[in-house]
Amino acid sequence: MMNKQDFRILVVDDDRSFLALITKILADEGYTVKGVGDPNEALLAARQFIPHLVVTDLKMPGMDGVALMHKIREDVPFCSFVLITAYATVDTAVAAMKSGASDYITKPLKSPDELRTLAQKFYDIEKMTSEKEVLAEDMPPMEVLFAGMDGIMQTAREVAPLDTTVMLYGETGSGKSLIANAMHVLSGRPGLFVDINCAVIPENLLESELFGYEKGAFTGAGSTKKGKFELAGDGTIFLDEVSEMSPSLQAKFLKVLQDKKFERLGSLNTIKTDARIIAATNRDLKALVEEKKFREDLYYRLNVFPISIPPLRQRRDAIETIAMYLLKRISARLGKNVVSISADLTERMKAHSWPGNVRELQNVIERGIIVSRSDVLAQHDAIADFTSASGAASSDIVDIKTAERTAIENALSRTSGSRKEAAAMLGISLRALQYKIKEYGIR
What we know:
Layout: E1 8-12, H1 16-28, E2 32-36, H2 39-49, E3 53-57, H3 65-75, E4 80-85, H4 90-98, E5 103-106, H5 112-138, H6 142-145, H7 150-159, E6 166-169, H8 176-187, E7 193-197, H9 203-211, E8 212-213, E9 225-226, H10 228-232, E10 236-240, H11 247-259, E11 261-263, E12 270-272, E13 276-281, H12 285-290, H13 296-302, E14 305-308, H14 319-333, E15 340-341, H15 343-351, H16 357-371, E16 376-377, H17 394-414, H18 419-426, H19 430-440
Parallel strand pairs: 1-2, 1-3, 3-4, 4-5, 6-13, 6-14, 7-10, 10-13, 15-16
Antiparallel strand pairs: 8-9, 11-12
Helix pairs in contact: 2-3, 14-16, 16-17, 17-18, 18-19
């Protein structure tokens, strides 16, 4: 997942003092920033730096900002541009936008927050776009994702192009998020797929995550931030574990569903939304309504088109198909040559109850690949995950943890200690790697 350090900004201005000011403001926000005082130097820098965003002065000797923008885009076609102009007129702003710039700021700056807000906007867009691309790459083929669920696949195809709100029911790990993302892909919506888990975000932060906030809306709100609804545009909002939403937020969310508009926290400006809603829960939402723990009117708004995802134990014929897909993908990610699963392990998998569903199956296969010394994943490679009551012999657990720790240490060694590169090599998120480093006490 992209963080601010991954977002590269190239600043170009022949006014050295203003260049230093802009560079410092952006660098202090956590972005990776490169400042250049000459447009010709900026061309070379752009080829090497590959910026996501270029902030350039409009009037410079030798080459103006518009000409520089067109030349940089020959090498870096997808970067955004913000032009700096000392002529704060509507005509200048319009001309800048018509020339291909994404936005503009005036010199001198009205306030550092003006620049911070602009950078945050482009960072949010790039972050969501990169996550969308990752989700698309991570999406299993439809025949794997819906293995053993032909009827549900047909239903998903039929409802995907509609604006109808969909409610997914299913146990934890059954693939609700992947199915929601598949429906977004099938819908053809040009906006982003935005996934938010209501159970993991603190109640006092969830509202601001959904709707955004203005600078000063609350303590710590140092700049304006867009919420998930605004970032999704006319895409899809997937609300996982929607049953965990607080009563007060349920009322506000219901109003957004009804009116198709909202306000950022601390703002009176109304923003319209065309985002399609897909929600999910692993609980009985109707029972929660009867217990007065979930609003009945919101329930009926969300439950327009309910789809129940069966647990993996009810799709035993699909286990081998899913397992082989996971084996090939995880083996390639870990740089191992495990190409098949032994017959006895396959039968054991089909007999297992899989309380953790597909997520548990994925963990079993990944751990097995890590400890495997053959091109065939055998039963003894995954035996720790098939003991009664989901337990395992302590020696097996130690072996798996030792293998995991060794893999992490090797990756860190090969990348000269770069956690970001090591995470990419291991095929896990940077956050997951940092958690494991802390868990194992790796220095």
